[in-house]
Amino acid sequence: MASQFSSQFRLSITRALGHQLAEAFDELAPAPLTPENLDRLDEQAEAERLSSRSGVYQLYRRGEFVYVGKADKRLSGRLSQHLRKISGRSNISPSEISFKCLYVAEDFSAVAPEKLLIKKYKADGHIPWNTNGFGNKDPGQRRDRTALSADHFDALFPIDLDRQVDGLGTGEHQLADLLAKIKSGLPYNFRFQKDSRFDAVSVTVPSAALTADAVFRLVAPALPEDWQISALMGYVIMYPDKGADYPSGFRYYRGVTVTEEQPKRVPAGEAGTLFEDEDEDEDEEDPQ
């Protein structure tokens, strides 16, 4: 019981750790998110013989602090994922992004340092990307028919279908092999249902420098009659659902026909509750 001359003291170790982490970040200067700087991270870790290359990081866009994340294995690997993701988006460029990071010893990771930082910075009104779906995994088919809020990351920065697909080769491709190359060559997820008929179909690729839009225009006519390719704001899907419309769909490839649509929106923040922001591990594969 408190009185004028006595009270109860509660020591919050986690709060103290959160403040110390924030202070350590304050001593760092943001660096451009480039492959060269990410290579330097690994070189630094090697030179300093760090026992762990995991840690926490901050992202900035045009100098604005937008995101706190973690890397359970390698900071450079997780940041490389973000670099690749942003490179495949409209309305944003990797040149706008910078980062800071802290290596965290393995025995300290159990206290979830990124959660301590998120709690602190949310209270200060920072890190908008921690609540808009930036770090989410592919939510799978259960979320394909969800309308996005106007402030969702995918609504603000939709996938760029004019982005060139990496790793394509010219000439005739078995459709199944071509789909796998498209998936690995895009900086956003291309999720599709596998079908044994794809092994018996060939598609001729006229150039190794094709955009995603151009490749999907080649693939769609080779699909079975009831299939379509649907470009949603955050990823592309391909299923036997020809004629289906998706709330966040903006381009559909149905045979030789390509259709543009206006994605549906809900008020800012409303649909975001459906996407619990979850910073994915850098070695995790996208679901098929």
UniProtKB/TrEMBL annotation:
<feature type="domain" description="GIY-YIG">
    <location>
        <begin position="52"/>
        <end position="127"/>
    </location>
</feature>
<dbReference type="InterPro" id="IPR018575">
    <property type="entry name" value="Restrct_endonuc_II_Eco29kI"/>
</dbReference>
<feature type="region of interest" description="Disordered">
    <location>
        <begin position="261"/>
        <end position="288"/>
    </location>
</feature>
<dbReference type="Pfam" id="PF09517">
    <property type="entry name" value="RE_Eco29kI"/>
</dbReference>
<protein>
    <submittedName>
        <fullName>GIY-YIG nuclease family protein</fullName>
    </submittedName>
</protein>
<dbReference type="InterPro" id="IPR000305">
    <property type="entry name" value="GIY-YIG_endonuc"/>
</dbReference>
<dbReference type="InterPro" id="IPR035901">
    <property type="entry name" value="GIY-YIG_endonuc_sf"/>
</dbReference>
<feature type="compositionally biased region" description="Acidic residues">
    <location>
        <begin position="275"/>
        <end position="288"/>
    </location>
</feature>
